Amino acid sequence: MVGDYRKTSGKLAGARVVALSDYAIDAAKSVQADLALDAVVYATGEELIAAEDVDATLV
Fold first, then answer.
1. pTM greater than 0.85
2. Which of the residue ranges 3-7, 12-16, 33-37, 45-49 has the most confident prediction, judged by mean pLDDT?
3. Do residues 22 and 58 touch, judged by C-beta distance below 8 A?
């Protein structure tokens, strides 16, 4: 996840990370902390996709 974020963060003008999810929720929480993201960590991808403030996803 971290590598994907770093590869795309400079290429998506105006985009921001608002949500994270991983089947291993501790991994998502670790990424959130490591990158100091102001993002919600969801337990499932379905919850993330249903979130009102999520406009697009990167898988």
1. no
2. 45-49
3. no
Locate 37 and state its tokens. Answer: 């993201």
| CB distance 21 to 43 below 8 Å | yes
Q: In this structure, are residues 41 and 32 in contact, taking their beta carbons and an 8 Å threshold? A: yes
Q: Residue 35: name the closest of 4, 59, 57 by CA.
A: 4
Buried b (16+ CB within 10 A) or exposed e, 5-20: eeeeeeeeeeeebebb
Cα-based torsion angle of the residue sequence 1, 27, 49, 54 in order, rounded to the nearest 10 degrees:
-70
Question: Which of the four pLDDT bands, split at 50, 70 and 90, describes residue 32?
Answer: very high
Q: Find the length of the chain.
A: 59
CA separation for the pair 15, 55 (Å, rounded): 10
